[in-house]
Amino acid sequence: MRKRLLAVVLAAAMAVCLMACGGSSSGSAASTGEGSGAASGEGIRLLNGKPEIDTQLKNLAAKYKEETGKVVNVETIGGDTNASDELKKMYQADNMPDIFVIEANQAANWDGLLADLTGEAWTEDTDYELVDEKMGTIGFPYTVEATALAYNAEILEKAGVDPASLTSPAAWQKAVETLDSKKDELGLTAVFGWCAEPANLGWSSGTHVFAQYLDAGLAQDDTTYIDLLNDGGKIDEARMKDFAAFVGMMNKYSDPALLIDGTYDNQVAGFAAGKYAFVTQGNWINGGVTGSPDYTGWAMGFAPYAFEDGIDTIIAGPPSFWTVYSDGDVDAAKEFLQWVSDDSAQDILVNEAGLISPFKDCSFVAADPFAESIKGYMDAGKTSGWHTMLKKDGLQNKTCQVFADYAKGALDEDAFVKTMGQVISSYYNN
Amino acid sequence: MKEDSGSKKLPALICLIGGAILLIWALALDFSGSKVGYRGALLVIGLIGIIMGLYIFPTLKYHRTLVYVVFLFPLLFAFVVTVIIPLFLGLFYSFTNWNGIRYTEFVGVANYARMFRQPSFIWSILITALFVVFNMILVNLVAFLLALLCTSKLKGMGFFRASYFLPNLIGGIVLGYIWQFVFSNVATKIFSGMKYSMLSSTGTAFMAIIIVYVWQYAGYIMLIYITGLNTVPAEVLEASNIDGANAIQTLFQIKIPMIAPTITICTFLTLTSAFKQFDVNLSLTNGTGSVADFLGQYLTNGTQMLALNIYNTAVVENEYAFGQAKAFLFFIILACVSILQVRISNKKEVEL
Q: What is the ipTM of this complex?
């Protein structure tokens, strides 16, 4: 009798397990309530890669439903899982969302699977859409991010440095020396909060700082150096040498503890506490800075990496795009994207999510403390492209090590240029 | 008997053929991308039909086998789906230019040829081998010494055993981040001679990985050694004691020979697990570290071991087929090690 009872209990347990397995079909994607049911045709699905704006996007979907009665399901991938990996799994499982996020250099992987959005009304209204020669207009820009040397306006003012004048290496050198001599008076630990630690911050040096070599001073659509790079990994030695000299100055006037062993958190916290006058990040640090208990409400902005005379641009543009899956519900997706580019949606994206709008007719200014500075560069046409996103996948993991060795003093300026060239070309031709 | 078989043949055939038709229909629906809801049910009914047909088919020869197969089916199915199919699929992909989404052409053995021309990959193989050697020796040595301590008759042994084992319960990723903090914020303050953390240059970073790994793994191996030491018969120890053997003689002449099989097991456990080292490597250094000149190249993956190299090739560098080819080489290496292990442990068991 007891044996039979045990058998029944075990069988029941197994049945429960099987049912539980069947229920969790949405995998590791943190989907909304209706997420898994979406495949059966009720509404479209949007795969978002920025976990920090998940709530706001859900509000956006709710607003869309309220205004048009149509359903959009937002699924967010982020944190440790990379959206492009998750998309590969979704593609293999025939479970593709209708709109999903990609970075510019991933477009070629999806050749033939992305809908052409040429001729949509919103394309008239922005300069930042992703255009591919073969596939047409494929990417919808949903935000603008900027990176350059972020500065603490209060400290620069006290030291008598005008950030607008920082457009040549000589001006930089003078400003940095001034700041360095007044370090104690200004309460600075170092002039630069620059971190070349490769294991966790390789994306910062390898992608964003390296981006300045590729784009600083160039027009938004100027692809000179990225084309050279993607042509078998060539670099322009003269430009790289100027860049090396500038990075050398940053190394010299940085906080050594942060430079070699720092973390992103230390870097942002140090900037928020007013320990550094400049920090090598982008406007995504705004939340970290304004949320810090040490932050006292000073203004901030961006100064260009002027490693050559006359460089006066910052890198600004969409680092990633929303694309439409061509086998999905293309019409509904197009309709949604058009709606997102209009006022009621931009209100949520700009004012709630704090994104900077890529659309010209958007009248909202984001709560981002960098927004004013970025908008200034955008209005003056002084922005360069995010072409660093077009470099070969994984290159940042190679170049960041060269930055780290340079920072540590294992390489000098000439060795940096030579090693950089060698590492890049061997990675392209491996 | 003859009559009986005749009357059963027909329904058996009907079951078989009907089952096969349903099965093929269900598969055809599936591959043609149809979304009909009943195709799962169709598949299951078809399978049951085939099994029924086979079972009532008038020969008793294979009944037993069939019953075994039916009962083993859930496990076999899971094994085939999660291990066997991916293995062959992976082998297949390694001959293509697969990018994780699809492939467009067959490249033959180009991926295999290419990996041996890549200095960074050869470097990874070399330091993995070095890591394995260091670990096999250090983990076993430390674990054995700890086991000796924990089998002595000191007070509070339960507590020490538990605390030595504890690091093993923390996941490798978490452990890596904790130690990263220790190396860069604590160690630099304690040893004031150190300008930068150990993790910032290749040689010391490699040592750091070994330290963390030994710290994590020695407790686990220690438990196995404790079990081994406890199986040494008390009468043998007593006899040696009466014969006047001192502690060191007892250790080398009695204990170590008696636990030889345990040593074999532990050696291979540390060998395979060190080969597969991934999580601590990922979270502690992420493979960084520079090598000034290796085969004429400046390498930037000084501490990147084999498993991490494969992961980075596929996922970060987006070369899935190439990563797959490397993974297959890794599979062959590990398979050889495992076969060797099984051979040797079997031999030892016979000897006992």
A: 0.82
Check: CATH 1.25.40.10 for B117-351? no
Range with the poorest average pLDDT among A122-131, A356-365, B15-24, B32-41: B32-41
Q: Is the pLDDT of residue B6 over 90?
A: no
Give yes or no for B97 touching A (CB within 8 A).
no
Total domains in chain A come to: 2
State whether A127 and A216 are in the same domain.
no
Burial B46-74 (b: 16+ CB within 10 A, else e): bbebbbbbbeebeeeeeeeeeeeeeeeee
pLDDT tens-place string over residues B43-60: 888 888 888 888 877 776
Nearest chain A alpha carbon to B35: A40
- Tell me if chain A has a CB within 8 Å of the CB of B135: no
Please tell me whether residue A276 adopts helix, strand or coil conformation: strand
Tell me the shortest Cα–Cα distance from A299 to chain B, in angstroms: 31
> CA–CA separation, A201 vs A195, rounded Å?
7
Does A391 touch chain B if contact means CB atoms closer than 8 Å?
Answer: no
CATH of the domain at A109: 3.40.190.10
Residue A307 domain-assigned? yes
Band (pLDDT 50/70/90 cuts) for residue B349 is low
Q: Is residue A82 part of a domain?
A: yes
A128 and A151 co-located in one domain: no
Chain A residues touching residue B119 (CB < 8 angstroms): 426
Of A197, A394, A419, the CB nearest to B298: A419
Please name the residues between 206 and 245 in chain B that touch chain A, using a CB distance below 8 Å: none
State whether residue B101 sits within 8 Å of chain A by CB: yes
Specify whether A57 is located in the same domain as A83: yes
Q: Are residues A229 and A326 in the same domain?
A: no
A218 touches A313 (CB < 8 A): yes
**Spatial distance between the Cα atoms of B332 and B99, rounded to a whole number of angstroms:** 23
Burial grade of B187 (CB within 10 A; 0-12, 13-18, 19 or more): middle
- Print the domain residue range for A210: 147-316+385-428
- Point out the domain boundary residue: A341, A375, A395: A341
Residue A239 shares a structural domain with residue A106? no
* Model confidence pLDDT, tens digit, residues B60-98: 677 788 888 888 988 999 999 999 999 999 999 999 999
Mind giving me the DSSP string for A70-88? Answer: --EEEEE--TTS-HHHHHH
A110 vs B contacts (CB less than 8 Å): 101
Q: What residues of chain A lie within 8 A of the CB of B97, using their CB?
A: none
Distance from CA of A349 to the nearest CA of B (A): 30
A289 and A214 within one domain: yes
Domain match, A174 and A230 both:
yes
Summarised one tens digit per residue, pLDDT across range A287-300 is: 889 889 999 989 99
**Is the Cβ pair A261, B196 closer than 8 Å?**
yes
Residues A170 and A273 occupy one common structural domain: yes
Q: Please give the C-alpha separations between residue A177 and each of A50, A181, A188, A191, A271, in angstroms, as whole numbers.
A: 39, 6, 13, 9, 19
Q: What ranges do the domains of chain B cover?
A: 2-112, 117-351
The reported pLDDT for the residue numbered A30 is: 40
A20 within a domain of the structure (yes/no): no
What percent of chain B stands above pLDDT 70? Answer: 97
Cα–Cα distance between A343 and A364 in angstroms, integer? 9
B301 vs A contacts (CB less than 8 Å):
397, 401
The answer to whether residue A190 is domain-embedded is yes
